[in-house]
UniProtKB/TrEMBL annotation:
The chain crosses the membrane at residues 79-99, 120-141, 147-166, 178-202, 214-234, 241-260, 280-300. PANTHER family: SERINC-DOMAIN CONTAINING SERINE AND SPHINGOLIPID BIOSYNTHESIS PROTEIN, SERINE INCORPORATOR. It comes from Panicum virgatum. It is a multi-pass membrane protein. One of its GO terms (cellular component) is membrane. InterPro entries: TDE1/TMS. Belongs to the TDE1 family. Keywords: Membrane, Signal, Transmembrane, Transmembrane helix. This is Serinc-domain containing serine and sphingolipid biosynthesis protein. Residues 1-18 form the signal peptide. Pfam families: Serinc. The keyword Disulfide bond does not apply. It is found in: Membrane. Its main location: membrane.
Amino acid sequence: MWAASCLASCCAACACEACRTAVGSIGRRSARIAYCGLFALSLFASWALREVAAPLLQSIPWINHFHKTPDREWFETDAVLRVSLGNFLFFTILAVIMAGIKDQKDPRDKIHHGGWMAKIFCWAVIVFLMFFVPNGVVSFYESISKFGSGLFLLVQVVLLLDFVHGWNENWVAKDEQFWYMALLVVSVVCYIATFSFSGLLFHWFTPSGHDCGLNLFFIVFTLILVFAFAIIALHPKINGSLLPASVIGLYCTYLCYSGLSSEPRDYECNGLHNHSKAVSTGSLTLGLATTILSVVYSAVRAGSSATVLSPPDSPRG
């Protein structure tokens, strides 16, 4: 028994030391990987709390102090918002601490690249403390975060443009007919997907017999933007390519779908109400994947080069 206890203690100590070594090694090689891992951890925490935390939040008196208890969906959203608020505060504090660092000789650079066990602990504490924050603060944060999410969509478009332009330049640089044809095929496929998806939007969100003028406006306006992107890209003074225009057009159509599908389930112009749960899960999964890819790409791309944030007088500004 004593030998087994010693063996278990040694294994636990070795495991802890291995974790500390791995975290430190990741931090030294690339802090970006570790920050993306922390972001993934926050997403997992949000998803887990969204699924299981509603009964717990209902029993907390300073959260559920309503005369009439809201439905389960309110508590699920509240849990995600509190995790999001904790992340916002944690990364804002880090950003303020790191402001003004010019090179790795700055003592604060050690905070950026190291101390990951301490940072994970601080992140967990801050997120935990958010569940003691009054509902009014969380509601205020929810209102502000709507504008922040809009800004994040613009960031996603910039990152997508950077990625597609790099993709386009890489294939054009090969200067072979096969790659030019490949660019054309991919562009045509994106446009076919865009127009097919738009047809589904007309079918789902403008049902006959109902006044759905607002939905019709958003779908038609999105199509106008798609055509405008193509015309601008093909203009002689722009000297652009159809590939970026087609990909951005498809992404804008997806954003239009994402907005329309979030309409209330009992809204007469939301034709997906009969499949609301499946659509909600699908939209959540797709949106989550888009967010993860955007954050990881921005961390790797902007952290490893100045291409995205180039000065105006640079070749790729």
